[in-house]
Amino acid sequence: MVDQDGLPVAGATVSLLATGAATSTSEQGIYVIHNVPLGSQTVVVKLIGYRDAQKTIQIVSGQNQLDFDLVLEADQLEEVVVIGYGVTKRKQVTGSISSVTPEDFNKGVVSSPDQLLAGKVAGLVVNRAGGDPTAGATMQLRGPSSLTASSAPLYVIDGIVGANIELVAPDDIVSMDVMKDASSTAIYGSRAANGVIFVTTRRGKAGAPVINYSGYAATEMISNKVNVLSAAEHKAFVEEHGLTVAPNETGYETDWQKAITRTGISHNHNVSLGGGTEHTRYNASLNYFNNQGIVKRNGIEKIVARVGIDQNAFDDRLKLSFNIGNSIITSQHIDYGIFNGAARYVPTSPIMSDAPEYAQYGGYFQVVGRTGYMNPVAMLNQRDESRSNNTLLGNFKGDLKIADGLIWSNILSYQRRHWDKKYYMHRTDFDSFALGRGYAERTSLKHIDKILESYLNYSHTFSNVHNLEAMAGYSYQRTKNDDGIWASAVGFMSDDLIDNNLNLGTLPDGYNPFSGYPQIKESLLISVYGRVGYNYDDKYLLSASLRRDGSSKFGKNNRWATFPSVSAAWRLSREGFMQDQQLFSELKLRVGYGVSGNQNIDPYRSIIMFGPRDGQFFYNGRWINAYGVNQNENPNLKWESTAMFNVGLDFELWRGRLGGSIEYYDKETKDLLYEYNVPSPPYQFDRLLANGASMNNKGVEIVLNAHIINKGNFRYSTTLNFARNVNKVGSLSSNIENIGVTERYEGGIGLEGWTGQTASIVLPGQPIGTFYVAKYIGYDEDAKRTIYQKPSGELVTQDQISAPDDYQIMGYALPKFTYAWNNTLKYKNWDLNVFLRGMYGNQIFNATRADLSRLQQANVTNIVKEAVEEGIFETPLIASSRFLEDGSFLRLDNATLGYKFPMTQSRYIKQARIYLTTQNLFTITKYTGVDPELNLGGLSPGIDNRSYYPKTRSFILGCNLTF
């Protein structure tokens, strides 16, 4: 067995399709399979980095030989990629689509499949700020494009639009295809402005049963802490500067951050079974995942089970598929206030005290009368929060071949999610609301999604060079969310039953246990859509699509909208003038334009609504709920609309040794949804959701992949991606006369003494995440005052700064560019993968450092070492550029060393591999906070405001077995 250069290929898996008997090739590329039945046999070859190969041979008595020439995967043009309501070959793609396979996924402890894509797709930012295993990742494709609606992409799992990604275990995923430009996503209309991610899962294949097991165990530890003073350092500092610490807060050495954290243990196990005949195939899998957080009493447990059956009938003219999947997630959550408490608490204070005045707090040491100062260990142990999420998805698909080239597909799916939350604050909780009486709440919500998709696909080739493809379909989706109940109670005599019996509470007069929540939300989306594609000799490609959506979410005057797209591609490498050159094995130019929408808002936002207002009032001896208008009507409310122009160049050089793509896009979003302040009267409520604002994103994306070394037993390949996006806010005016804003202040800080201060501004002509703060000049040692500069140029002290009138634009939270570098090395049966990623040019407002820079208050709160080095004894009371820091970073995201055992002598085990993975081994950054990777979503990204969950560092040992 050799590669495309005639060199031997070692470590390839060679198997018989009918019996499953398998072996591996030697260092010389030789393989032997014993006791092969006589007759026709199909042989399959698989090896990571190469395209699968398959041949059929007639086995006769004696020696039989079958040779293979493997082709590198770098020549991806023959790959099949998923597009809306169909598939196509990579060489026929006219839009911007990035494909990620399991070999490229992020390795390590992954609590949600979306984390597999972090850094793998140029232009897609996947971020899970901190290491909380219960927290999901945020995703942003080609920059922010909304002021109000969600920026999450649309998931399509095995053809099911909007399926919950938590229903899929990472080990069951075959590929994830990311549609990035509007010419590709417009076929999904009003839900696709943030991109579409297709997830293809493992299916049963004809042949003997195949059992796969993959599992790992991991340890996770805190990678970085807030750099506060230790007990000895704190004691020395306060003594040096003549500060006095209260007697009951001295005499101890407490590492508060260590007191709330631990080394977390995680493990994951996935078992799958697949097989069948040419007519009936089956697959089943079971995944168990347990991730213990590095913070005590925090973690997640997940069970995902899936079963699928594929049946062919009527001479394969009818193909039926039935799938059912269920995920059960239980999680334990913590109050993020413990992190601020662990940083601020004086390190010479005790955790517990036997003094009688602390008995009411359960023996925990507490300081009465100090603002925002609570024992973090007490908060951790005296607040219980658990959640469960049970999601079921069942779907049925039928493909009927009506005639040659004409297939009618129908999909029915039902998704139900049941979400529960239990929360209890103990009677000994320091919070005055719960102290002495306890507080409990229960939430139980049900979400149901029903979908019907019916579409026709037609394909025909004329004269061997003209290929026509057409698709037309209809979609019906009915959704019902937040169907359930929420209740709370106070006044418990005991903590023994916590939140399990709300009837044990004694409600005080005027207490409303329901608070008007939840509100059932129902919506209906009806669509018709179509696409036409023309291909001349695989040289000139043209595609156009049109979707018409009608949604009940929007105003009665704007229920329907149309989303068109058109794209074309020219494969220059197929032209006659390119046939004599040896440099390019592929060269394709793509261009496209399309319009897609964003309807990620709650239903009923366009109609007048009534609800509880201003609590309760006492009438006729009873407390009565006060009701009134809490939402104005807007019959013209409609979805956000994103138009995108995209041009791309795909290339391969030297027979696939080097390949990649270069993209440029211009993305204009209009009719942005924004909540405006309006006068009351004439409006009945003081806010109104309306369209009208706009935003633009322009960017460049570059992807390079290269097979650097491919000689004998050693191979080295690398992939580099780079993305630059420039975001700019357009108008903030609404489409309603005389309603609009010129600017909007965001990013409230809320530090002690920082009343009403913000750090960000939404301003036309500037990007989202623009920092708008006072300009810090320096520290006057003689006057012992910090100095600032007003926009006029006048130098003043902080008491002369008026927020935000004297603020200025001082930085930006969004990065200038993001990048990632993946490296894979293979030597004989060993493999090594090293993945680095980072971002450059962004800034972070470090409110955590600001809060811990009060040197004059070091006797009542801890401080960071950076503040000690600054030596500024004036308490910071305004948001200023003093606390803006460079947020650029380079992270060794994960590294994996693996070994694949030769299994030629094993009768039962076909493949076996063990591996060792490290996650977040190091981060290079100038940022002084816990971690520079913050959430970039929302209107005020890039603010580190005390409530953080530390990033983790993981060490994983795992194995993969195939039977």
UniProtKB/TrEMBL annotation:
SUPFAM superfamilies: Carboxypeptidase regulatory domain-like (SSF49464), Porins (SSF56935). It is found in: Cell outer membrane. Keywords: Cell outer membrane, Membrane, Receptor, TonB box, Transmembrane, Transmembrane beta strand, Transport. It is a multi-pass membrane protein. InterPro entries: Beta-barrel_TonB, Beta-barrel_TonB_sf, CarboxyPept-like_regulatory, Plug_dom, Plug_dom_sf, TonB-dep_OMP_SusC/RagA, TonB-dep_OMP_SusC/RagA_CS, TonB-dep_rcpt-like. Residues 90-196 form the TonB-dependent receptor plug domain. It comes from the Bacteria. Residues 387-920 form the TonB-dependent receptor-like beta-barrel domain. Belongs to the TonB-dependent receptor family. NCBIfam families: OMP_RagA_SusC, SusC_RagA_signa. This is TonB-dependent receptor.
